[in-house]
Design a protein that fits this description.
The chain has 15 helices and 10 strands. It has 341 residues and is an alpha/beta fold. It is globular.
Amino acid sequence: MSEKSRFSECAATGVGSMPGGDARETAKTVTGSFADGQGIPHLAELPGRGPGADMIGRTVGLLVEMYGHVEPSGWRISDRPGRDTRRARSWLGEDLDALEEFTQGYEGVLKVQAVGPWTLAAALERRNGEAVLGDPGACRDLAGSLAEGLKAHLAEVRRRIPGADVVLQLDEPSLTAVLGGGVRTASGYRTYRSVDRQVVESALRDLLAVAGDGAGLVHSCAPGVPFALLRRAGAAAVSFDFSLLTEREEEAIGEAVESGTQLLLGIVPGTDAASAGLPDPGGSVKGVRTLWSRLGLNPGTLAESVVLTPSCGLAGASPAYARAALAHCARAARSLADNPE
């Protein structure tokens, strides 16, 4: 399946996290919001349940021959699987059970998420309390363990939902800080040195390859997304907060579109408090149309190049707003497809 055919019929999707702690209700929402081919259902995370359900904890639970436990400062590497690792794996199993129930007979694209190697290295502590990021050898070991874990995870999702064309989203909100030397040490008084861009690119390439050809994407809701690096690393799509896009990055956007890279644009605020009420669907995509025009891109390519999402995860929203935000993305995508200019 080509990159464009994977995403072009999928108008909208969620980013990852959802509010609350009810796996069945969440699976019902993320599948029902994109019924009739209106978007990509996803395996949601429910961090409101506590440590192990958060995105770092979930990904720690996927690691092979590497384990973690919760300290007051965050997740730390362990010698053996303990209560926190077992809890993370248990909640993932519960979420998979619920998604499987609501995707019986489903055929189409299905998205799963995991924290990427660099954000995970910035968040996960070694036994001395410093981040894995500060040890190049530990970073390599972590990336290798994550790759093995993701292979098993994707195989399990495909076994449970055999009609799904599974795509993998690597969440990398700390990537810009990793590249710029902005990740603070445990003391908070200094930062870890920046990681060489080729090393970052190589690790991402290896992890994206786990998903298969054209099935890996990278998400960041932080400013300064390194679009060119992600494209070179083999990302078939890049997901980002559209409101943070600057004029300086527009050329990279144009190059990405022309090379066939899909864009998952976060156009809806992630929380009720930030939204001040959702605008009409056409108004939500006015900026997307304007960008296309400014870059001189063919409006007819919008539908095949763009998928609409919330700006970031919806864990901080109310359940009602989360449902409304996903539905709004689907309606806005229809507006964009029907009226690209």
